[in-house]
Amino acid sequence: MPTEASDVSLVICCTASRRVKGTEASEDGYIQGAGDDSEGWSHGLSPDVCWKYIERLMATPGDDLPDLIEDLLGAEKTERDTIEATLVSPTTMVYIGRLDACTKPSLLDFDCIIECSENRSREEKSANDSKTRLQLHCGSGKLASRALRSLLPEACAFIEAATFRGCPKMLFACPTGRDLSVGIVLAALCLYFDDDGIFHPEPRSEGISKAYIRQRLSWIMVSRPSANPSRSSLQAVNSFLMQRPTTVEGPRPG
Predict the structure, then answer these.
(1) pLDDT of the residue at 104
(2) Which range, 17-26, 36-45, 117-126, 157-166, is most confident?
(3) 189-210: string of b/e by CB count within 10 Å (b at 16+)?
(4) Which of 114, 86, 90 minimizes the C-alpha distance to 174?
(5) Do 213 and 190 touch, CB atoms closer than 8 A?
(6) Is 139 left (phi over 0), alpha (psi -120 to 50) or beta?
(7) What are phi and psi of 151, to 5 degrees?
């Protein structure tokens, strides 16, 4: 069959099928075939991913393709999660991302930003003077997770002040987008969001148990599968939430 465009190749896929009685509501049964069911033969491979790795796919033996496709899809998912900011559902205002996200044009989409950085930057003082941006110096490695406990009150005070001014969209960022920012988001979800993901300005003062914290953590893990908070970070959040006073302490932006 000729095609109108010379740079287009027509590919017709045919499958050999057999009739299976009783598998469909129709009296004649269902004629098995994968030609009309891309989910059945593509293993989730999308056109974008296919063409991005077309040479690698074409060079792989057929028996090895399912495993390769699984690896490619996983890598693509991780790349998207770590570069882009991810909305934590069921909220409509909490996003997690890498510090890289703070340098992208999409930064303008956020009303306020909390950054967890390893080193103090020249911009840190001016950032902390801002009503829409808070930069927390956490250090690196286990020291960062330990420092998180002492920085959570400041972060919570900033969240309360920002939402009081009407900031409906918040970005929480750290170098990996997987650990420190996840810890701060977890604390915020436990204190300020109900079971439907609706924000409440008054922090929750009771009913915070380990089971409750795990339930809020599941929101993050489902929304951002690449999230991987360290044990130290989770311990810091648990300690803060379980031992905190009835009011959040810490400086509030003016």
Answers:
(1) 60
(2) 157-166
(3) bbbbbeeeeebeeebeeeebee
(4) 114
(5) yes
(6) left
(7) -95, -15
* Alpha-carbon distances of 140 from 8, 118, 233, rounded to whole Å: 52, 5, 12
Least confident piece of the model among 61-65, 179-183, 194-198: 61-65
Residue 39 has pLDDT above 70, yes or no: no
Structure tokens at 182: 């996840």
Query: How far is the C-alpha of 148 from the C-alpha of 237, rounded, in Å?
Result: 8
The verdict on whether omega for the bond into residue 90 sits within 30 degrees of 0, i.e. cis, is yes
Q: Tokens 């993901």 belong to which residue?
A: 197
Measured at the CA of 190, the angle between CA 184 and CA 193, to 5 degrees, comes to 105
Q: What is the CA radius of gyration of the chain?
A: 24
How many H helices and E strands in the chain? 9, 7
* Amino acid, single-letter form, for residue 75: A
Burial 227-243 (b: 16+ CB within 10 A, else e): bebbebbbbbbbebbee
For position 73, what pLDDT does the model report?
Answer: 83
Q: CB 53: neighbour CB atoms within 10 A?
A: 18
More confident residue, 114 or 254: 114
pTM of the full structure: 0.64
Determine the residue type at 205.
S
DSSP state of 134: E
CA dihedral of 26, 31, 37, 41, whole degrees rounded to 10: 150
Mean pLDDT for 223-229 is: 88
Give the pLDDT confidence score for residue 235 in this predicted structure.
Answer: 93
Instruction: Point out which residues pair with 30 in neighbouring strands.
Output: 20
